[in-house]
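Q: Trace token order:
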Amino acid sequence: MYLEKLEERAKGRGKKLAVAVANDEHVIEAVFRAWKEDICEPVLFGPKEEILKIVKECTPEWEKPQIVDCLAEEAGRLAVETVSKGECDFLMKGKIKTGDLMKIYLDERYGLRTGKTLSMVSVMEIPDFPRPLIISDPGMVISPTLEQKVDMIEHCVRVADVLGIKMPKVAVVGAIEIVNPKMPVTIEAAVLSKMNQRGQIKNCIVDGPFALDNVVSEEAARRKGIESPVAGKADILILPDIEAANILYKALVFLAKARAASTILGGRVPVVLTSRADSEETKYYSIVLSSLFA
């Protein structure tokens, strides 16, 4: 339901997507769907014969995909160059290692840095849960600092805005809901809350620390006597590190059957950076979400 609303917003905007090393079946299927639904105009970088073979087998309706024929080793660089020149509006990872693609993206020669932290934001649509959950960072920043968490919150607020959520409630999540000097995550959560109260973090309501149960369940929050506008009502979850966020993401997808869409924000253009284990649907909706920031 929520992802379909993003899809409607993304249609017909004429954005061009550079796909780095596009010779991958699931990537081709997702990109074809995005082209067919008028989300974007894909440009496929990689070995032309391999790409056309996959297109013929998986998406035979796609008669004339736009392909830049090149060696797989060159495709990442050429895709990033195209984006940096403004010839394409956003970037997608194909059959290339995340580290290899992002190393090129962050090369100062391409001018794609902004000074902000590059972080992954994921929108989770969970069965029987009354709202979408936005989580960060399940795939980019290993152990975010306080300053990086400020950027992560700002990126999440931007995503909340395209979902139509004004003044989203942000929960800084850890293992417990009280400040413990022996647990730095809880101290940072309290600092972020105070920064928000003083107007240093805008357009949202930030509180923490929280444990997971008392930001997604109002009943759990009541039982623990937690009084906060965020308790049980969080729209955005800022997780303490990549391990916690990645485990939550995969638990929601594989155990709770959540649908997901992710994007990398913080650079000059967004990046579609999905896992090899992600479904074609997840890849497609990640293209949809990212296109709205292109």
Remarks:
- The domain at 2-113+267-292 is CATH 3.40.50.10950 (Rossmann fold).
